[in-house]
Specification:
Chain lengths: 163, 163
């Protein structure tokens, strides 16, 4: 979580896995620890902020159109060897198709536990058009649960329609 | 909402108003309309995606520490002359201080209506440590409600603790 080049590579890999088209990528070290980074894509953006001292990463996937943010989640949670992923989906721009009512909605909030060596310990995830549970199905069990967990990472998926 | 230079200036102004320190700024035109942009700050990031054909902008403020994302919301909603702002606050990284329970929480979801000439029509906003209602108090009534509204814009504020 403190390896800027590794995080940047993972985030760009995640953007490609989500079938988004990368426009720009900005990654910077956090002070005193951690990485902050954004991948701007034609379909919106992916961002990450890490707290290695807490084993925690907060990741947002904001996508629209035909993108598959669940694949970005899979790449990140596998690449960071997350032990736990907390995921929220937030619908955005729900009124763009002419309907009334709220424009935003928290569609789901779930927690995934992975039986793999922990680098990051928790993941949050917010908003996408399909169920995020599909993203967790690809995780295979590795070498058992690491009992020394004391941190968290986080992912957020967001999506909006694109006319 | 289709004026890239204006949107970039507003977002940088918003970042400064929120008392964040700007690290990098990436703005690109959306196809066929609109702007996508991210301001990377030491305290995390601000992002915007606009749909001028719908009078809609989706804005996220992800901040930590002593930042004041409500001020960024004020700058944006005033600068875009929003007619309506839909706002959600999402707490992030709630377990970083050693507490148990969920790491994310939707703290509030509210809608603000502004009596001003509409450029953008709706705002979503997600997550900050203080109440977002403070951000709306600074809006003064202008020249009455624009009856021709048919779109939306959006802002999201998010915040995480910073050790």
């Amino acid at each position: 979580l403190d390896d800027l080049k590794r995080i940047e590579a993972l985030m760009n890999q995640a953007a490609k896995a989500a079938r988004t088209n990368i426009v720009a990528s900005v990654f910077q070290p956090f002070e005193p620890h951690g990485v902050t980074g954004v991948v701007v894509v034609e379909e919106s953006h992916l961002s990450i902020h890490t707290w290695p001292e807490h084993g925690y990463a907060a990741v947002d996937f904001f996508t629209c159109g035909e993108s598959v943010p669940e694949m970005a989640h899979r790449v990140l949670s596998e690449g960071l060897k997350a032990e736990r992923a907390e995921v929220i989906f937030v619908d955005r721009g729900m009124t763009l198709n002419g309907t009334s009512g709220p424009s935003m909605r928290m569609r789901s909030h779930s927690t995934e536990h992975f039986a793999q060596q922990a680098l990051a310990r928790e993941i949050e995830l917010a908003h996408a058009p399909q169920s995020v549970h599909a993203a967790a199905n690809g995780h295979s069990a590795h070498n058992g649960h690491n009992g020394s967990s004391n941190g968290a990472s986080s992912t957020v998926i967001m999506a909006a329609p694109r006319s």
